[in-house]
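*** Fold description ***
***
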Amino acid sequence: MNFHHDDDRMAIAEQLAGHDPRAGADALRAIARDHGVDDDIRMEAAGRLCELDEAAAADALRAIARDHAVDDDIRLEAASRLPEVDGPAAAEAFRAIARDHAVDDDIRMEAASRMPELDGPAAADALRAIARDHAVDDDIRMEAASRLPGLDQAAAADAFGVIARDHSVDDDFRADAAEQLARLHPRATAR
């Protein structure tokens, strides 16, 4: 990455946008989608695109949010800006982050928690995936499972059951999961 070159490209694209918004939007989109450009500058270009061309901004933000090479926080920021320009793309971007095992547990959970108002079934899927993931911290697994009953009772029961039966999980969390499962399905038992 050449930060001075990236800054120069950004300055030129902004100047161009002042004279020819279409050409400026094309230049900003190219910067935002360029994997060789610094993550912060990619986000800056995508943010400026929101003012010029919402479709191009949605495309750029989606590309940043789904880029595994981009810092997790910036991926989440890109997904968080998407509802302004493309709600379905926002749900898809949050889901990609929430289901990405390489992403930090807290950021996965944050992405999943922003999904219910955009796409309830996709939110349930993402939360269930986090709750079932043995590599995720116990408290985050329980938080994910605890958000499920209002979205999908069957997914909640499955998640609580998996946690309750997982001997690698702290006993207090396992007991809480078994209790939550019993509330959902009084006849169910954690095997």
Summary: The CA atoms of residues 7 and 45 lie 10 Å apart. Residues 99-191 form one domain. The mean pLDDT is 92.
